[in-house]
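USER:
I would value a second opinion on how I read folds in token form. Give me a protein, with the fold worked out from its sequence. Write it directly below this note and I will take it from there.

ASSISTANT:
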Amino acid sequence: MTTQATVELDKQTRDIVKATVPVLQERGDDITSRFYQLMFENHPELKNIFNQTNQRKGNQSKALANTVYAAAANIDQLGDILPQVKQIAQKHKSLNIKPEHYPIVGKYLLLAMKDVLGDTASDDVINAWEKAYGVISGVFIDTEKEMYQELKNTTGGWIDFRNFKVVDKVAESDVITSFYLEPADGNPFPIYQPGQYITVKAEIAGQPYTHLRQYSLSAAPGEGYYRISVKREDALNGLPAGIVSNYLHTQIEKGSMLPISAPSGDFKLDQEDTRPLVLMSGGVGLTPMMSMLDTTIKQNPDREIYFIHAAHNGNVHAMKDYVRKLNDAHQQLHAYTVYADPAAEDEGAYHKAGYVDLEWLSSILPTNDSAFYFCGPEGFMKAMYQNLKKYNVAEKDIHFEFFGPAKAITA
């Protein structure tokens, strides 16, 4: 990839793009916010693809701004952002992004730069970015083409959306419900990697656009079904209730049909690693951890597992009885529960009140030479990352997944 970029982008172009790094760092959010505004005004049909809740929160704009900034900063060595490209390409694959979408994005990204930066975005700057975008988008298109081809060659694999039937619906807590899915056509479907997700396509009466949402698969692969465990997002802090989560909780029942995409995602359990496995989750972030937990117990019975889950209290703690039974039945598993605000009836059902801090974490773990995976709300993610860095965990052993557009947790 680096060689191709070097050949297609001359030094002058690369120098101009690199010179825009400071202004992108300062005005990136403004540019990407304007980009989405322009694109949706001219292509409202793309609202069927982009998460409008993330648009309202500004999360999508920040994620795109970070990607554009990273591309500019690494324009000499685009290979350095290949992991980020692959992560985004996995999300694009789950949304069925196509090559013809890229010229639309490029057009309005350049217009947004011009609008926001004014005279700073000279013709030379815009021309340089047009060339750079052509190379960068080509990398995405080529990467996604390979992913789509691999999916087509997978037994039971499919592209676009496929109807799955809800064969069971189980309340896991006051706010989390699991949906068990099997293909409506009865044909084979691919096994996934623990930690991956599917995209649900929600076509809701009264809504002008379809809604696409990613949900982690919460069971071990190979069980004969896909399972997602969905938190109902209620209205909070001025933000409206989650459209899709409430739709699933209130309108989807056993026997309902859900169009879904094939499993995607690069947050995957390394099953070759035999060192202790540490799985840490906050709230509904336990869903990919459950898949990793079940898989390890079934396939690697000698591997030590430390399963740490943080929740507000027992009422919203999903799958607690299931994990407790696993803990009693399997010597390799050491399960811990942390409640931020335990209720009176939670007495004896948790190991720590408050939050997961380094002092407590280091007291229950045998070594920092372990594989760490974590997922949860943004605050939890940042705290866990900082805990692990202070615990001197190697960067290569720190693995995490964001629900929604990726954000920086290292600050």
Residues 232 and 245 are 5 Å apart (CA to CA). The radius of gyration is 22 Å. The longest helix spans residues 123-152.
